[in-house]
Amino acid sequence: MEKLIISGGSPLKGTVHIGGSKNSCLPILAATLLTREKCVIRNVPDLADVRTMCDLLKWLSARVKHDRANGVIEVQAESPLGVAPYELVRKMRASVCLLGPLLARLRNCKVSLPGGCVIGNRPIDQHVKGLSRLGAEMTIENGYVHARCNELVGTDVFMGGRFGSTVTGTANILMAAVLAKGTTVIDCAACEPEIADLAHFLIKMGAKITGAGGPTIEVEGVAELHGADHAVIPDRIEAGTFMVAAAITGGDVEIKGACAAHLSAVRDKLEEAGVNVTRTNGTIRVSGGASHRALEITTMPYPGFPTDMQAQMCTLMSITPGISVVTEKIYPNRFMHLSEMARLGADVALESNTAIIKGVNYLSGAPVMASDLRASAALVLAGLVADGETEVNRIYHVDRGYEKLDQKLRHLGAHIERADE
Ligand code: EPU
Fold first, then answer.
1. Which of 20, 70, 338, 357 is placed for a possible disulfide with 43 were both Cys, Cβ 3.0 to 4.6 Å?
2. What's the pTM?
């Protein structure tokens, strides 16, 4: 296992290029199973989760050519198998996105349930409900979700759960509905840009979809889909993480290749905190304000403040004067980073799903343990400003979702090295 060793204190300066979106390309790769023809996916980030999805597609007997250097994946699934095994699915929860396309293509499939997750309970009841509405018989047997049907028939499907709309649930229903008979209306659909991107890819494959990116998506099923060529959207969470990195180090960073429209909520909160954010010709420039202000943040489904940026903002607030209040409404238990932050000297308390953070004057470096992807990013950000040396252990979590994070930070002037644990 590897760790990152960070010596804090250098303001980040320079330009960083944002890669393709992890959470866009995982369902898009799953969607290549909807056709026997070849699909080409571009702007794919080189991430552990992407490689796991490729392994799954290969296991399902698709031909996969992964050009990691250029971020291009070609997939051709002439006659896919219908079973996604635990050994691969357990590595990545997004494997659940195989359910919709495999069911639509084969009418019979089994996808292992992914198991426990450190960010909290992650049920798939909405996926099961939605696919049942389309006519599938859904059972859970021996740790697998088994979905089967004679045919899928379009209908209205409501995708809102206790914590809002489900993103991968919406993706699954969309991918099943494109090959269903008749019209499907998905209400309370997730509005995340990754859903709109998936729909763009499906439309290129011949699907008939309107409204994706909004709360009501209408799909008119077609008999078959064909191959398509698609470049995935930029990763808004990678971009947001670099925005916070610039702010927290009091640096001045140009973020290129991000989609500013996808980052309104993050920008709004950073500006409220006193950070300078400007936008010109496809570049977001972030420079740390002289002194930051405490914030109240509540995570919400898009276009609200993203849960995937909550941990990073907690780090920024930990050295911002005043008392910040951060409420997590998507994953009420997604606060594993707080106890590690306390090891670095942060003054944090948790009341139910709300973190109360009293800004301290400085953090001091220490060994810390990454628990999940975004928590790891938050600890790396803390290391960038902590006095002395911070060791972030178990960084395979970082590598699941950030492409070359350490290299990109080093390029901006951070003192960060990778070493064996
Ligand atoms: N939920 C249910 N029932 C379901 C599905 C979800 O109750 O059937 C609940 C969840 O427990 C959660 C809420 O609904 O409380 C939202 O979960 P959602 O299904 O939207 O999450 P997801 O689709 O599994 C995606 C991203 C996550 C991101 C969330 C929320 C991918 C591959 N993953 O997960 O990304 O946090 O949406 O925006 O798209 C990450 O990148 O670090 C990450 C965790």
1. 20
2. 0.97
Provide residues with CB under 6 Å of ligand 1: 23, 26, 93-94, 121-127, 161-163, 166-169, 190, 194, 307-308, 330-331, 373-374, 401
The set of residues, in sequence order, having a beta carbon less than 8 Å from that of 147 and lying 6+ positions away, is 99, 102, 103, 108, 109, 110, 111, 131, 136, 137, 138
Tell me the backbone φ, ψ of residue 251, rounded to 5 degrees: -95, -160
For a mutational test of ligand 1's pocket, the pick from 119, 167, 400, i.e. the residue with the most ligand atoms closer than 8 A to its C-beta, is: 167
**265 vs 21: CA distance, rounded Å:** 18
Q: What is the pLDDT of residues 165-185, one digit of tens each?
A: 999 999 999 999 999 999 999
Instruction: Answer yes or no: are the C-beta atoms of 101 and 53 closer than 8 Å.
Output: no
- Is residue 1 predicted with pLDDT exceeding 90? no
Q: Domain spans of the chain?
A: 2-19+234-420, 22-231
Q: CB under 8 Å to 72, separation ≥6 — which residues?
A: 40, 41, 42, 44, 66
Residue 166 Cα to ligand 1 midpoint, Å, equals 6
CATH architecture of 22-231: Alpha-beta prism (3.65)
Cα–Cα distance for residue pair 218/222, rounded to 1 Å: 13
Q: Which pLDDT does position 208 carry in this prediction?
A: 98
Type of residue at 139: T
Query: Which CA distances in Å does 230 have to 71, 111, 223?
Result: 12, 26, 21
- Three-state DSSP class for 211? coil
- pLDDT at site 172: 98
Sign of CA dihedral 136, 139, 144, 148: negative
- d(C-alpha 66, C-alpha 31), whole Å: 16
CB within 8 A of 313, min separation 6: which ones? 244, 269, 295, 297, 326
CA–CA separation, 384 and 5 (whole Å): 10
Per the listing, tokens 């938050």 go with: 378
Are the CB atoms for 243 and 286 separated by under 8 Å?
A: yes
Q: Does domain 2-19+234-420 have CATH number 3.40.50.300?
A: no
Residue 120, pLDDT > 90, answer: no
pLDDT at 117: 67
Residue 114 has pLDDT above 90, yes or no: no
Convert the pLDDT of each residue in 10-55 to its tens digit. Answer: 999 999 999 999 999 999 999 999 999 999 999 999 999 999 999 9
Task: List the one residue out of 414, 363, 28 whose CA is nearest residue 212.
Answer: 28
